[in-house]
Structures are given as structure tokens and as C-alpha cells.
Amino acid sequence: MKLGRKKEETAAKAVKLPDRFDTVTVTTAKGEKFPARVLERVQDRLRIAILVPLKSPSASELKGMVLEYPGARGRTRLRGAFSIDDPSEPDVLCVEGPHEVEVLQEREYVRIKSARPVLVYAGGDRLQMRSYTVDLSGGGFLLAGPDTLKVGEEVKFQLTIEPGSAPLAGKGKIVRTDQKGRRAVAFDGISDFDRRRLVRFIFECQRTERRRGLMDEG
Length: 218
What we know:
The protein is α+β, with helices and mostly antiparallel strands.
């Protein structure tokens, strides 16, 4: 028993838990999925709010729940001890001792070549750097620079995809550098709304390129 608990504690420390205000998904044992948001993260304890009306779950339903969220390695699934934080608020749940069950390798996002301005914050927001993207996808982007960013470093960014529109804001991690010294940033925290905006922008760029191709052939 003690060995099992120790393994769970080790796993909880190893996994990158979602941050406060991150959007996550709660999946029940029946396969029902509910959008949720992290209200609080304290060590190995999460407090989350279901974003849709939900009747008070039973003990068996709480036991079979799984927390899912996107990460740099894929879609991460966590188990833990789910409980209701306050009986008067059945849509607010606590997750004690969350530990990784598996990482689902999702199909790679479509990637396009696109130079878009991006503002990068590093070093705990102490450093502000202006750069531009080399390519874009729904899961991250390739950054032209600067070369001071290290692999594994966490950054915040503001990415402008269209002039006059609000920038996409989020958090990411430098996951690799290419032969030209450019940095690949994998999204570690971006709202569903901003991700949809980015995917829609990529789709429109693809459609424009196809039109140009057809015109050239004509």
C-alpha cells in the first residue's frame, strides 16, 4: 500500500499539471465529457469548476472520473481522488494526488509557412523580446529568434495573426532548435477560443493558397 502511494506521489511530481485558469476536460467512466477550468493548483491538489450545468455526481461517478488537457507531448490524462468541494456547488470539484495515466499522441496539427509578429516574455516576464514566426500550427510555432532562449525554457507570448485583431496570448515551452538556430515553441497553455482562431486562420491561409494554385494552373 505504501509503495503504491509512493509511486503515485512520484508520478504526480513528474507530470506537468495544468495551471490556474487553464481549460481542461473532465471525462466520466461512461465517456461523457465536460469542459472545466482550473480554479486553483496547490502542490498535488487541483480545484476545478465544470463550465456546464451538472447534477451532483455520485461517489461511483467521482471515482471513475479522468482529467484531460493538452500538453507538449500530447493530450494528457490524469486520475486522482475526485471529490465535491462544497455540496452547495456540485460543479466545483477537487482532485487530490493527480497522477498521469497516459499521454495520447494526437494527430499532428496542419503546419503552414507564415511570418507573423510575436512578442515573447521569458525569465519570469523580466525579458520582453520581439520576433516573428517561421511557421504556425494549432500546437505551436517555429520562432525566428532570439538565440538566447534555451530548450526547456517556459515563455509567454502574444501572437498577432491579423492586423487590427487582438493577439493570441498564451504560454509555451521551447522544445527544440533546428539547424538554423530557430526555436520551436509548443503550446503549454492557450484558450480554446484562441486555438480555434489560430486553426481558422491556418485554414483560410490554406484555402487562399489552393485558390492561387488553381489560378496559376488556369
